[in-house]
């Protein structure tokens, strides 16, 4: 059975060995094991902290949390009552059916509509559908956002991001090609400095120091390279990418981060987080990423 439904999660199994696990909580992909073109033995490509809560008590520290409708602390009046990174990563999604189940890919849909707990803090009408697909060397995630409102409720304004925790030795991993791209540095101490546009000068971006950079007008296709593997991230409708690694400086202050966890991953997070997507009534926006194992 290539799609296995358990009480708290769905497991996708591709006939050639790749697999993924998705929690209903947050629609969080918490495991992606995949063979590489040169090694038929599937290996885990995502990082999940051993201290992460997987029981729905708090967002998962690792895997691929879905960030919606705000990235970071809310800045839009519609999001004012929401926690950091919004509610999508901490709500229970529904199973919306199998989309595809063959050699080309094994794929399921999860859905989220306003629940009582969302309505307490967020009033906009919306529908989310999240489609996760496992192929031989690939994992694709697609987020479809629909404005289900009436003409009187107006535009749906939101941010969205896939918070990928890519398993890799943080002292050796590099991300390309970001040379020449404008970015904002969230590690700066003041709001004024955080808002200052900088230009990336490195041909290959590393995270050997505490890094929390939001790249603007990013190329949409990235390669994450380390001695343990090479991964391509190809995106659609995500003009930004965030590169985050807290290193010991900030990582040791994160309650659900295992000791030294920051040495084991880099977050490369495609998103729409500078400004807002503005969706007219009845319209749907789709953000997509395709992760391909190259080595
Ligand atoms: O601790 P969390 O709410 O999961 O956020 C973890 C991190 O997410 C993103 O990468 C942000 O750019 C960081 O500033 C933030 O620290």
UniProtKB/TrEMBL annotation:
It holds the Pfam family Aldose_epim. It comes from the Eukaryota. The keyword Membrane does not apply. It is an enzyme of class 5 (isomerase). Keywords: Isomerase. Its EC number is 5.1.3.15. It catalyses: alpha-D-glucose 6-phosphate = beta-D-glucose 6-phosphate. Belongs to the glucose-6-phosphate 1-epimerase family. Catalyzes the interconversion between the alpha and beta anomers from at least three hexose 6-phosphate sugars (Glc6P, Gal6P, and Man6P). PANTHER family: APOSPORY-ASSOCIATED PROTEIN C-RELATED (PTHR11122), GLUCOSE-6-PHOSPHATE 1-EPIMERASE (PTHR11122:SF13). This is Glucose-6-phosphate 1-epimerase. It comes from Somion occarium.
């Amino acid at each position: 059975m290539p799609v296995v439904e358990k009480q708290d999660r769905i497991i996708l199994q591709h006939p050639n060995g790749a697999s993924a696990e998705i929690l209903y909580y947050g629609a969080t992909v918490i495991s992606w094991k995949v063979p590489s073109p040169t090694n038929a033995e599937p290996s885990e490509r995502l990082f999940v902290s051993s201290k992460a809560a997987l029981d729905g008590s708090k967002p998962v520290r690792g895997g691929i949390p879905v960030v919606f409708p705000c990235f970071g602390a809310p800045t839009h009046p519609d999001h004012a009552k929401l926690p950091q990174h919004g509610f999508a990563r901490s709500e229970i999604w529904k199973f919306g059916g199998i989309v595809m189940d063959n050699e080309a890919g094994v794929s399921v849909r999860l859905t989220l509509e306003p629940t009582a707990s969302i309505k307490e803090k967020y009033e906009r009408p919306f529908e989310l559908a999240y489609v996760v697909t496992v192929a031989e060397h690939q994992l694709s995630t697609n987020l479809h956002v629909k404005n289900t409102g009436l003409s009187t409720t107006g535009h749906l304004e939101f941010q969205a991001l896939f918070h990928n925790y890519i398993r890799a030795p943080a002292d050796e991993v590099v991300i390309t090609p970001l040379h020449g791209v404008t970015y904002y540095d969230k590690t700066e101490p003041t709001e004024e400095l955080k808002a200052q546009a900088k230009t990336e000068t490195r041909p290959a971006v590393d995270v050997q120091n505490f890094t929390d950079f939001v790249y603007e007008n990013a190329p949409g296709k990235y390669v994450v390279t380390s001695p343990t593997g090479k991964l391509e991230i190809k995106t659609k409708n995500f003009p930004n990418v965030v590169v985050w690694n807290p290193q010991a400086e900030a990582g040791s202050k994160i309650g659900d981060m295992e000791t030294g966890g920051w040495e084991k991953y880099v977050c490369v997070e495609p998103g729409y987080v500078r400004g807002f997507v503005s969706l007219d009534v009845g319209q749907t926006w789709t953000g997509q990423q395709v992760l391909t194992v190259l080595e």
